[in-house]
Amino acid sequence: MRQTARIISTYTADISGVCSALFELGGMTVIHDASGCNSTYTTHDEPRWYDLDSMIYISALTETEAILGDDNRLIGDIVNTAGELSPRFIAICGSPVAMMIGTDFKAIAKVIGEKTGIPTFGLSTNGMHSYLTGASCALETVVKYFCHGDVARSKDLSVNIIGATPLDFSINGSVESIKRWLAESGFRLVSCMAMGSDLDRISLAGSAHVNLVVSYSGLATAKMLQKQFGTPYVAGVPFGIGFADILAHVLRRAAKSGKSSVPCAERKSGSDGGLTVVGESIFAGSLARAIEVESGRSVRVLCPLETTEELTAEGDVLIPNEDDAARQFALAGSVIADPLYKPICPDDVSFYSLPHEAFSGRCYREQIPNLINRKLKLEETI
Questions:
Q1: Which terminal Cβ of the chain has fewer Cβ within 10 Å, N or C?
Q2: Where do the Nitrogenase/oxidoreductase component domain residues begin and end (predicted)?
């Protein structure tokens, strides 16, 4: 029962991560789930739903089909719809129900691909992992299918942004600010995976000199591009003025040397009784590094999501469940986290709100700040 969230919310699931990563790429995403569930993955978890068109559908799985394991209607509906809409690709992903009945998405995707002639892939999501896993799998698959080795390196200094979705960066202009900061730092943007770039732009990703990984969901894709094209990656988000300058320097150095770097983890983690930041590892680590650069104060990062040792500093703590989070909050002097964490934060620990779209959804969307390449208001926090 340790994984039970008794008080706090839960993070957006892997299914929504797939939908978010593929939203702007011109493909058709089909979730194998019961009728009526589409709003869970779109209107609740996707802030672009009302402003941008995207082909995201639910298969309307019935009880009889689940019991009998009948995939014929699913295949037929997808083939017919693809014939009408002509998507660039077809992605099929699963729900907890699909997992329980053992749906073979790779086999179904193979059949549909043969019938339609459209690139089709199955993604084995099941709602048991966070959005980071789903988005990571989706981006990695897109790169595998559409980024080929016949792309020449660009002559000018160029970069891809990998791992950008509204689930981490909302729609408050943060991603646009990252693009502007890159341009001001002398980089030409090849593609942004996956906000503001179409599939044609992403297919040129191999021409970039360096990749900027802005969330864990982009790490696997960056490693794939490194293996395929030799492109180094740098993990970090340009929060604050000082860390943004450091990150720009590290990007230029990586582009020249070909060596990857993780500046968001190159910091001294804070101790008990100090300032603590809660969130996705690259996002929270970058904010901690930015605070350290601007104030000289060490910050401890608590990560409740999937990550790797590469992205964390020594002393950072994983908090996979509510009990672990509450225990670590009690050791902190002050906490920066999504407002929905506040109920488990002790009264004698200062709490500073930093909403995270993937945790509290649209509840606090209007309060999510754009901290990209801007002076942090540390006097209000520390």
A1: N
A2: 28-249
Whether the full predicted model's pTM is greater than 0.70, yes or no, is yes
Q: What is the mean pLDDT of residues 357-365?
A: 94
CB 196 within 8 A of CB 24: yes
Number of independent structural domains in the chain: 3
Residue 20, both tokens: 């978010």
Cβ 188 vs Cβ 157: under 8 Å: yes
Tell me what pLDDT residue 377 has: 78
Residue 382's pLDDT band (cuts 50, 70, 90): very low
Query: Domain of 82?
Result: 14-129
Q: Are residues 254 and 302 in the same domain?
A: no
Residue type, 166: P
Q: For the chain, list the strands marked E by DSSP.
A: 28-32, 55-58, 90-94, 120-123, 158-162, 188-193, 210-213, 233-235, 275-278, 299-303, 317-318, 334-337, 350-353
> Does 1 fall in a domain?
no
Q: What's at 58, amino acid-wise?
A: I
Tell whether 238 and 342 lie within a shared domain. Answer: no
Which is more confident, 148 or 370?
370
Tally of CB atoms within 10 A around 171? 16
88-129 per-position pLDDT tens digit: 999 999 988 888 888 899 999 999 999 999 999 999 899 899
Q: Is 342 left (phi over 0), alpha (psi -120 to 50) or beta?
A: alpha
User: Quick one: pLDDT at residue 323?
Assistant: 94
d(CA 122, CA 109): 5
**Number of other CB atoms surrounding residue 241 within 10 Å:** 15
Answer whether residue 3 shows pLDDT above 80. no
Domain closes at, from 114, 129, 144: 129
